# Entry
Amino acid sequence: ELNFQEALQNAYLAYTDREVDLDFVASLKEQCDGGVAPKMYAMLCALQAFMEKNNRAPLHGTIPDMTASTNLYVKLQKLYHDQALQDLQEFATFLGRDSGITQDEAQSFCRNVYSLDLLTTRTLEEEYNVIDDAEVLDEWNMILMDPYEVPEQTPFLWYIALKAANVFCDKYNRYPGIIENYLQDVEPLQECIVKVVADMKLEESELVQHTLLGAEKKYATEMVREANAEVHNIASVLGGVASQEAVKIITGQYVPLNNTYIYNGIASTGGVY
# Structure
């Protein structure tokens, strides 16, 4: 009976698509060509050759815990392990002897082949300029359709407000709110918010209309009240996030944040956009 219960709990694994797209592999190869990442390029070439021959990716080689007798579990585990070892040896033949890739590196690549991805973060120039990418614009609209539990604290809204503050800086050569009568900056900052929303093509979003473009001008008022202050507790949180991302990159473990991270200290929530 326990086996049937486990089968029901893990049934989704049987119909979850676990294929590695050859077109995606070819795209990754193009990005790594030209000496940018020679080892990764060599392993992607080997993966492409392996998949063209076997119509599948190399086997991972591990199985999850399950209710079974020790004898049967060990036998099943050995079957998977042996097939994975055979796949690794065949994969190594496609690499060639002069690739400079160790067995541990090839094994790690084969085990994580289903997690292959390409992160193309935006440059600072792209971040500050208007983005005219249909895929990104669709992603932004999807984010606004799934707001935080307190909608007005959705980090993406503050991301837009921060971009508007940058526009204000470009126009007036100072950050909004750093003057004595800081409330004078609310109206010009609100104009910048309207401009950024229009540039991001988000005017039709109901959430944006009721928050950023609301008559109360709450976001512009809060931004000028903040006046580019660096609060110590928020700085410590962001410093921890930055150090964590640095460790990811240095060790090559886990996936780093892709693009701009926004932390909302009011609601203790964050988002990446």
Q: What stands out?
A: The longest strand covers residues 261-264. The mean pLDDT is 89. The beta strands are 261-264, 269-272.
